[in-house]
Amino acid sequence: MADANQFLGFDLTQVKTLRNFGLGIEGETASLQAQIDALTTYAENINTWAVALATKLNLDATVTDTNYDTNPQA
After folding, report:
1. Which residue in 1, 2, 50, 60 has the most C-beta neighbors within 10 A?
2. Is the pLDDT higher at 57 or at 67?
């Protein structure tokens, strides 16, 4: 059995998933952090878009459903 620290705390299934996304584990924590930062930015952008869209739909007089969630992370 592999040492738990060999894969920075990830189990083997998680390591395979990360590798499928093009992320190496051994000694590439900076690359992994860059990917996490990029995904965080993408999530923030999607949340900003979702709030803007929900707000627009809630204010649009031609839209009959005005219950759109303007706080997607709540």
Report:
1. 50
2. 57
